[in-house]
Design a protein that fits this description.
By secondary structure, this protein is α/β, with parallel strands linked by helices. The chain has a single domain, classed as Alpha-Beta Barrel (TIM Barrel). Helix 2 packs parallel to helix 5. The structure holds calcium ion.
């Protein structure tokens, strides 16, 4: 592997970076960088609630993210994990429905049962406390609900109509290998729902994202899906997708191979830059290889309440958008990124 390029970029000095020229903007395959609402405006409202999506839409993002899993009766719902217990009251309502590992799986519940659940701010299963202490209170009687993919599409299309904007979908197929083991073909089901709502051509305002390259390859090469696809890349020790070496994808050869079935990559911010003794170390090599292969780069996840030590929001955004020239960014705080992009990359 090529060693990382070390750029001395004192964090406090990042605001002195020159604004990006139009020529620089053209360097990325996706044009003007985009803000992607990660699970909605989940820095402010429970993740994947329709309320969080409406708020993110109003904040002016280009895309809203949907993490999709299937119910027992095969309905795509929007929730981050194929478990229900970290963001709903499933353990209280259905105490005898957990599996041997103590977890409650969405695939074990029909949609009518999932509709009875109340969604809440993400909590830590071990401590029972909310993961991000400063966010929306987890203890509330507000009836937030787990939406179906269909309902969320209606929300986005409705808001696009009433606001005159054109916000896109950014659908993640969660753990297709798990759904396959449960006898469900999630790619077929989800692409069917999307097609029924008109998301069925190359120019449709949507990205499909997945950690599993086998699923993406199948959709593009066997199912002939014309939709734009993003290969998600994580750290191997997350064991997100069994049998897949994600870190090997972050090589020149790996990225050329991804470009055969995808239009972009989504990788963790710390795979692109890291702080070492007060210096920001940037992986310009990865960005160069990806752009040379025609791939857009959309890192995850920008959180103003979980920034690397001592880094300001603007310094991190400058490092990503100006220093590395990424093409988009997943964020829990859409307003911060939208305002930044409007300032740095005026239309
Ligand atoms: Ca996701």
């Amino acid at each position: 592997m090529t060693p990382p390029t070390v750029i001395v970029l004192a964090v406090a000095m990042a605001s002195t970076l020159a604004p990006c020229s139009n020529a620089a903007l053209a360097a990325g395959p996706a044009g003007r960088p985009v803000a992607i609402a990660h699970r909605g405006a989940c820095g402010y409202l429970p993740e994947h609630s329709l309320e969080a999506k409406a708020m993110a839409h109003a904040m002016g993002v280009a895309f809203l993210e949907q993490d999709v899993v299937l119910t027992r009766d095969g309905v795509p719902i929007v929730i981050h994990d194929h478990y229900l217990d970290t963001v709903t009251d499933v353990a209280r309502l259905y105490p005898d429905r957990k599996r041997k590992d103590g977890r409650y799986y969405a695939i074990d519940f029909d949609l009518t049962e999932i509709r009875r659940l109340t969604l809440h701010e993400r909590t830590d299963l071990d401590t029972g406390t909310q993961v991000y202490a400063g966010r929306f209170p987890a203890a509330t009687t507000i009836p937030f609900r787990v939406p179906t993919l269909e309902e969320e599409i209606q929300l986005v299309k409705g808001l696009n109509k009433s606001t005159g904007r054109n916000v896109g979908l950014y659908v993640e197929l969660k753990a297709p290998w798990f759904h396959r083991a449960e006898g469900k073909d999630m790619a077929k089901i989800v692409l069917g729902v999307l097609a029924a709502h008109g998301y069925d051509r190359r120019e449709s305002n949507i990205y499909i994202q997945c950690f599993d390259p086998r699923c993406l390859r199948r959709m593009r090469q066997i199912m002939r899906s014309p939709l734009r696809q993003v290969q998600l890349i994580g750290h191997n020790d997350w064991r997100e997708t069994p049998g897949v070496d994600h870190e090997k994808m972050l090589t020149k050869e790996g990225l050329v191979s991804i470009a055969r079935y995808a239009d972009g990559i989504g990788l963790a911010i710390d795979q692109l830059l890291s702080l070492r003794q007060g210096r920001v170390v940037m992986r310009h090599d990865i960005v160069g290889w990806a752009h040379d292969a025609g791939l857009a780069i959309h890192p995850y996840t920008f959180r103003v309440d979980a920034l690397p030590g001592g880094v300001t929001p603007d310094a991190l955004l400058d490092a990503l958008f100006v220093g590395l020239r990424v093409d988009g960014l997943f964020t829990d705080f859409p307003d911060t990124v939208v305002r930044y992009l409007e300032r740095r990359f005026p239309r």
